[in-house]
Amino acid sequence: MSFIDDDRPQKKVGHEIGADLSMLSVDELKARVELLKTEIARLEAEATRKASGRQAAESFFRS
Q1: Is the dihedral of CA 14, 16, 24, 39 positive or negative?
Q2: What is the pLDDT of residue 12?
Q3: CA 53 to CA 55: how far, in whole Å?
Q4: SS3 state of residue 38
Q5: 8 by DSSP, 3-state: which?
Q6: Please, are residues 60 and 39 in contact by the beta-carbon 8 Å criterion?
Q7: In whole angstroms, what is the distance from residue 57 CA to residue 34 CA?
Q8: Rg of the chain on CA atoms, in Å
Q9: Of residues 44, 46, 18, the one with CA closest to residue 32
Q10: Cβ-based neighbour number of residue 55 at 10 Å
Q11: Cβ of 36: how many Cβ atoms within 10 Å?
Q12: What is the pLDDT of residues 7-53, one digit of tens each?
């Protein structure tokens, strides 16, 4: 019976670059777009944080 499968942990929704999108619904596609937008914002924030830290270190050692 398939009721045993219902107790398994749900696979985390994610996105693999280049994955086949043909079987996804519009809602699933929108969810992935939001997931990717969130990840882009996280990456940009980390890059900004690292760049400002590097600038601070460079200015400290120039003095």
Answers
A1: positive
A2: 67
A3: 5
A4: helix
A5: coil
A6: no
A7: 35
A8: 20
A9: 18
A10: 10
A11: 13
A12: 777 766 688 999 999 999 999 999 999 999 999 999 999 999 999 88
Residue 6 token pair? 């219902």
Task: Give the global pTM.
Answer: 0.63
Q: Contact at 8 Å (CB) between 30 and 51?
A: no
- CB 24 within 8 Å of CB 4: no
Backbone φ/ψ region at 18: left (φ over 0), alpha (ψ -120 to 50), beta: left
CA dist 59 and 13 (Å) reads 42
pLDDT the model gives residue 4: 62
Residue 55 has pLDDT above 90, yes or no: no
- The answer on pLDDT for 2 being more than 70 is no
